[in-house]
Amino acid sequence: MSSEESEQSTDLDAYDMSHALLALTLCNTKDRAGSETDIKALEQMYKALGFQSTVKRNLTAKGFWEELEKFRDDMEKMEDPVSCCFVVLMAHGEEGILLGVDGKTIMLEELFSMLTNKNSLALRGKPKVFIVQACRGEQKDPGEVVRPAESGGNVFLSSEQPPKLPTYTDILHVFATVEGYIAYRHEEDGSFFIQTLVDVFTNNTGHILDLLTEVTQRMAAADLIEGGKPRKVNPEVQSTLRKLLYLR
């Protein structure tokens, strides 16, 4: 390995988290009992991790866009650099869609695209974590018996000079459930996903993908009872992070 390649490898170690850490929670609490419990838990987590947090409630479909746009534009005006941002979206939903309190819908991709490396200068090359607590369909998972399975494959990467960033790197999407399935929420205790995530992120160290594996492990091991029937649920993680992201 050349000295140049060695320097590049060192650069890919971890994201710099020494500057501003920002969080935005957009949560529709109307007809979503338990949501305030989730908000409270998230606020405690952000305080423990050193994030500056903003919470907005009961948004129309357009309101989700407007609040995220304001969040992005305010970051562009900050004198100090931003190291990382969390955006938590909690509402009723379907696959790829959130429902506003006005009954209208907004595509998740419209919200995700607002903070890409192309559309957010302040966050270019910085980790952007989206956490989505919303149903992605109506299917319910009764669980399956585990059988051994193996998979493998190779991925080949290429780079060009001068260095450029792909538009969609440095983004982490974390969904409460997989495509097509229900996301469970208790009317008093809050949502299973948010409560598990907060507990793991607050009380454990390690890079975020390891922490999310712990979240998935805990959720997968638990049995939820709905209408007297056992249910299984697990989050889905989609990552284009280029470096390790440590929250502490």
UniProtKB/TrEMBL annotation:
Q: Which SMART domains match?
A: CASc
Any idea where this protein resides? Cytoplasm; Nucleus
Q: Per UniProt, what is one GO molecular function of this protein?
A: cysteine-type endopeptidase activity
Q: Using the record's annotation, list all stretches that form the Caspase family p20 domain.
A: 32-139
Q: Where is the Caspase family p10 domain?
A: 161-248
Recorded GO CC terms:
cornified envelope; cytosol; mitochondrion; nucleoplasm
Q: How does it assemble?
A: Heterodimer of a large and a small subunit, both processed from the precursor; the mature active form is a p17/p10 dimer and the intermediate form a p20/p8 dimer.
Name of the protein this chain belongs to: Caspase-14
This chain's source organism reads: Sarcophilus harrisii
Query: Where is the organism placed in the taxonomic lineage, from the top?
Result: Eukaryota, Metazoa, Chordata, Craniata, Vertebrata
